């Protein structure tokens, strides 16, 4: 039995609205096992990004508990929290957020260099390997504006994998891409999941991507409804 890598217990998140409070996440529970590939679907405004930001520690719940790799994040001091954020979580967003003045290679190296300038050569080697894995080793000296949308997103995925995150979190990673490019990224994500046993949680509107995941979760009225996918 694979170990539990993420556990959400009784999570609640409200935003204060003009008329009344928006209770977006309601007593939500979730357990994700190591190596699982989970997709989160739901209507626009259902709270998918809100949920992902809570898991990614970009925002705090009003109540409830989040355990990442067995540790309750609420109980961690700032130093430990930074460590968990940098080492255990990798983030990919709909917009790539690559740094424009750096090359593809440098962008991928950056998360590895945080607090670790001494091992620059090792980090460079790893960044090159990751870029090769996402099929971008022919564009390492290109800056983001010299890359296509799909290429930028592949670099962003390599960057998110730099510190070998326990969980790869993605918010509509192919939301801005054409069908063909999206399909290529979807296959890449499946490959990363299968070959590296990478735990992936992806928010998506794409049925095709959701169909590649082990489990589809629908966010509806603040809670998740499960539909298992029988992947062979
Ligand atoms: N900072 C905020 N303050 C107030 N309301 C917010 C805030 N952030 C989000 N909301 C509201 O919470 C709801 C959920 O937003 P969220 O971004 O999580 O939806 P989503 O499911 O990701 O939608 P989409 O598919 O369009 O990206 C929306 O109705 C939104 O208006
Ligand atoms: Mg969203």
Count the strands? 10
Which strand order do you get reading across the main beta sheet? 6-7-8-3-9-10
Ligand inventory reads: adenosine-5'-triphosphate, magnesium ion
CATH topology type = Rossmann fold
Question: How would you summarize the topology of this molecule?
Answer:
Layout: E1 4-16, E2 21-33, E3 37-41, H1 48-55, E4 63-68, E5 71-72, H2 78-88, E6 89-92, H3 104-113, H4 120-133, H5 149-161, E7 167-171, H6 179-196, E8 199-203, H7 207-212, E9 215-220, E10 223-228
Parallel strand pairs: 3-8, 3-9, 6-7, 7-8
Antiparallel strand pairs: 1-2, 1-4, 4-5, 9-10
Helix pairs in contact: 3-4, 3-5, 4-5
The structure holds adenosine-5'-triphosphate and magnesium ion.
Magnesium ion is lined by residues 48-49, 171.
Would you kindly provide a brief summary of this structure?
It is built from seven helices and ten strands.
Question: What does this entry look like structurally?
Answer:
This protein has a single domain, classed as P-loop containing nucleotide triphosphate hydrolases (Rossmann fold, 3-Layer(aba) Sandwich). Helix 3 (104-113) runs parallel beside helix 5. It is built from seven helices and ten strands. It has helices spanning 48-55, 78-88, 104-113, 120-133, 149-161, 179-196, 207-212; strands at 4-16, 21-33, 37-41, 63-68, 71-72, 89-92, 167-171, 199-203, 215-220, 223-228. 34% of the residues lie in helices and 28% in strands. Bound molecules: adenosine-5'-triphosphate (ATP) and magnesium ion. Residues 15, 22, 24, 42, 44-50 line the site of adenosine-5'-triphosphate.
């Amino acid at each position: 039995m694979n170990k539990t890598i993420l556990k959400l217990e009784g999570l609640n998140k409200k935003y204060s609205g003009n008329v009344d409070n928006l209770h977006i996440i309601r007593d939500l529970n979730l357990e994700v096992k190591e190596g699982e590939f989970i997709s989160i679907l739901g209507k626009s405004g259902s709270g998918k990004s809100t949920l992902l930001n809570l898991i990614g520690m970009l925002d705090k719940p009003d109540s409830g508990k989040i355990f990442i790799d067995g540790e309750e994040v609420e109980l961690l001091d700032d130093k430990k929290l930074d460590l968990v954020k940098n080492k255990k979580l990798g983030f990919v967003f709909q917009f790539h957020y690559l740094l424009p003045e750096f090359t593809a290679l440098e962008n991928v190296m950056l998360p590895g260099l945080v607090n670790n300038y001494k091992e620059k050569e090792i980090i460079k080697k790893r960044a090159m390997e990751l870029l090769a894995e996402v099929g971008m080793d022919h564009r390492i000296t290109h800056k983001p504006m010299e890359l296509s949308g799909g290429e930028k997103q592949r670099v962003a995925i390599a960057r998110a994998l730099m510190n070998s995150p326990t969980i790869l979190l993605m918010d509509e990673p192919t939301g801005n891409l054409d069908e063909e490019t999206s399909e290529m990224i979807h296959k890449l994500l499946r490959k990363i999941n299968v070959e590296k046993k990478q735990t992936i949680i992806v928010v998506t509107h794409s049925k095709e991507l959701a169909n590649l995941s082990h489990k589809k979760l629908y966010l509806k009225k603040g809670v998740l409804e499960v539909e298992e996918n029988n992947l062979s």
